[in-house]
Write the structure tokens for this entry.
Amino acid sequence: MRKALLGTVLGLVMTVAGLMVGSGQATAAGCDDYAIMYCGASSSSQFINKVNNDGRHNDHKAIYADFGLVPSQYGKFVSSAKQGTIRENGDIIVDGTVVGRSTMNVGRVHDSNFTQPVIINGQQYWGGPFGSTYHANTADVMVMFNDQGVMQFAVISSCGNPQRIVPNKPVYSCDNLRQTKVDKNTYRFTTAATAARGAEVVKAVYDFGDGQTKTVTNLAQPVEHTFKKDSKVRVTVYVKVPGGNVVTASGPDCITQITFQAPPPPNPQAQCTSLTAALLDQTTRNYRFVVTAQVSGGAKFESADFDFGDSTVMRGLVPNGDRVTVRHAFNEAGNYTITATLHFTDSSGQAATATCETRVSQVAVAA
């Protein structure tokens, strides 16, 4: 595939090296001696089929391996090769992005344009800049990328001529995880990322470190989360690179530590609110005593002890809800002070007490 060096007029259609050329564009396959693959290929599958089965040349595998396409990757080439364009200056463009440039177009014939010798597997081929060796100003190319989106192999479709390439490595990174405190344990997050040279951010996934995640497709979209414990938040940015593969980007600037602000412990409160006495039988001086407690802040009413003031003590009476009811008969008339001691535990199990008193006076003498 050689550049037409005759003084042609732009737009004139003419035959060059077996190809029809018009307005600087190739319109037919490269079926000449310059072509590495005679007549080229119209698809990636046809290209690999001719590499394996073309009876005209038996050197395809060696040539293409020297340019970055080894037999173990033929299947990948068939399934993933992208259509692109190579310009006169060597730029290779896929999906509107310059993914690299050609430094040499390699063919089979030595002439005034193909001047650089290339030895592959003991055989000599010839190369030169695309702009001076191809018969048109642009050409369709098939391009294969590695998993990171870096151009790995490029070949002209019409003639199978491989290109020595300098790839443009796509640029992508997760740059910063920003947080703003909304309230005590609720935070708002956004992420800054870089995606250039054909890289495109697809989504970002926030991992809040507590088993919950959140996915956004717009990094400017704020994400809020309420924490219930100390957590390490990580965000991973997913990036589509040339060739269609999706890669991830993270890093130390996309990780942040959240310290949970625990609420203050409850202030346990327990008090004895009343101790009442009711005479049940005047003859026997039998009374009913009811002591009532009030608890809050996680305190628990455990039991009550009664001292009836006549040397009689009852201990460990179990409450019914917030109160304990007990009966007691006095043996002799007199004035008595009755004391109830209430036992509590707070939320941590620590013990506390509270007391109430009441008086019983002028106990009647039995008739």
Summary: The chain has three domains: 14-167, 171-258, 269-360. The domain at 171-258 is CATH 2.60.40.10 (Immunoglobulin-like). The first strand starts at residue 14 and ends at 16.
